[in-house]
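DM from R.C. (forwarded with permission)

"hey, sorry to bug you on a friday — could you get me a structure for this? deadline for the figure draft is monday and I only need the backbone to look sensible"
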Amino acid sequence: MKKVIASLLIAASPLAFSAQLDISRASLKANTPGSDNTAAYMLVENMTKDDVRIVAAESSVAEFTELHSHKMDGDRMIMRHEKYIDVDAGEAVRFVPNGYHIMLINLKKRMKHGEQEDITLKYDDGTTQTVTFEVFDPRKAAE
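My reply, with the result:
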């Protein structure tokens, strides 16, 4: 009986329902000399039957790591900090330039082409998912 109760408690824990998204095309733009900020992009797919809400991102290489979007405001493109980004069940969200992205602010080191850096996504159910991003320099990628 104790084993059955323990199994039920584990199954009911938040970790049992962790919202893991399928992440691909994870790339982090190398920061240009003199810039302390950069952005990360990815394709986020929710292959589950439950909606998932990303509520934060963290990185050890930046003082602040934030969810951002670009939106048109009249004739101006405005970047905004987002409190969360929803990924509906069975849907995909693209994190791209001039759209949703992860902003890394006040970098602690220079991001160099060919390196890898981890960013951890936090979900509203309390779970996290660490994603490895490939650092790219558009100037070198074209070579």
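R.C.: lifesaver. Helices lie at 2-12, 138-141.
me: no worries. Residues 21 and 69 are 19 Å apart (CA to CA).
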